[in-house]
Amino acid sequence: MSFWSQMGLQEGTSVLGVEVQGLYDYSMFLITMIFSFVSCIMVKILMKKFSGRVYLESQWLEIMWSILPVGFLVALGLPSIKLLYLMDEISLPEATIKTVGHQWYWSYEYSDSRGSSYSFDSYLVPDALMEGGYRLLEVDHRCVVPSLLCMRGLVTSDDVIHSWAIPSSSIKVDGVPGRINQISLCFLRTGVFYGQCSELCGVNHSFMPICVESVSTEVYTNWIIENHNLVLQEMANKGGNSWTWWGVLVAVAKAVGNGVYWVVSMYGMFLFYLFYYSFYIPGKFVVLGGLEITQWFVESAFAFIKWSLWFSNSPVEASIYAILYLAGNLWGAIVFTVTSPVKASFWLVKGIFKGVMGLCALSYYTFEAIAHSLTSFTEDSFREFVMQEVNLNTKKFVWIITDRYKNG
Ligand SMILES: [Cu+2]
């Protein structure tokens, strides 16, 4: 979170947050360089007379002062555009947290597990300062998220437009009534991160803070399972023991139907692929090849019959035609064998073509390398580490969930 006399951005708590920080530092560096250079030129213009008796034009100078600014703009715009698109990227999230804005509090919903929905409201704690907390930032129930695990956040609103924002993670999503916006939640470490409603929503707009508690995958998974079990228990208690033989029968029939459907669909798929690859594909090739050979044979036979008829009518003409035809074919074969230098030149052309293509590929890869170095502000080893941790946590999450569901 921010601290007194802070100059830059908050310390990044998500991959995006770190990247945005990198972009900020990089653009500030470029801007400072441009500003100082232009200031120097302007001071020089004020101090000196930039005029010469023979210095009338300079093509080279004009080309440079057109191309250099374009280069700077690209260097500033490219990383920005890349981050903009990365922000919308939701890469295979494990679970969903739904955030609903109200006048004037937030509510969180954890609903995609076991058919139950665990939700709670999150209100400001008015006298947090007295309890050692941060003023106007602490809430009674924090939004709990796992760290280093990909989650999906859905943000919407119940009344007016709100905005769910956590500056340190570069998150700001508008909660619009009647619309659902989504955001990727992947925090780099455990901790408590603060934010505030960032869209003017009424008199108590300043008093609906956002407080996210990032915990380890194990803690999160156990927490969500416990709460879902509590909700399920409450639902069962409310419903009472109102089961009937009819209900049991329907449930059993449903289960049997599901099983039969599953088995039948599996076998159907198996038989389909078996038929497709062992009969259809080979059959298709045999039939098509046979058709082609038959077509060639029929065409040749037809041409020969035609020529025979012609020969029976006017033998001289037909013979001359046949001799010319065969000689033409023979001449073609002779030319092909004698003029092997042509073949060599053909290979040369092919080689040149390949070389040009290789040069194009080389320039493409060079461009890609430059674009990569321009657009990523974190080290490759850091990103690899994050990916490894995320994979590990995903496995842990799935393992704990399946284990718990098996047992209870
Ligand atoms: Cu607000």
UniProtKB/TrEMBL annotation:
It is found in: Mitochondrion inner membrane. GO terms for biological process: ATP synthesis coupled electron transport. GO terms for cellular component: mitochondrial inner membrane. It catalyses: 4 Fe(II)-[cytochrome c] + O2 + 8 H(+)(in) = 4 Fe(III)-[cytochrome c] + 2 H2O + 4 H(+)(out). Residues 1-91 form the Cytochrome oxidase subunit II transmembrane region profile domain. Its cofactor is Cu cation. It comes from the Eukaryota. One of its GO terms (molecular function) is cytochrome-c oxidase activity. It is a multi-pass membrane protein. The keyword Glycosyltransferase does not apply. Binds a copper A center. Keywords: Copper, Electron transport, Magnesium, Membrane, Metal-binding, Mitochondrion, Mitochondrion inner membrane, Respiratory chain, Translocase, Transmembrane, Transmembrane helix, Transport. Residues 92-226 form the Cytochrome oxidase subunit II copper A binding domain. The chain crosses the membrane at residues 26-47, 59-78, 243-264, 271-298, 318-339, 346-367. Its main location: mitochondrion. Component of the cytochrome c oxidase, the last enzyme in the mitochondrial electron transport chain which drives oxidative phosphorylation. The respiratory chain contains 3 multisubunit complexes succinate dehydrogenase (complex II, CII), ubiquinol-cytochrome c oxidoreductase (cytochrome b-c1 complex, complex III, CIII) and cytochrome c oxidase (complex IV, CIV), that cooperate to transfer electrons derived from NADH and succinate to molecular oxygen, creating an electrochemical gradient over the inner membrane that drives transmembrane transport and the ATP synthase. Belongs to the cytochrome c oxidase subunit 2 family. This is Cytochrome c oxidase subunit 2. It comes from Microcondylaea bonellii. The lineage of its organism: Eukaryota, Metazoa, Spiralia, Lophotrochozoa, Mollusca. The gene is cox2.
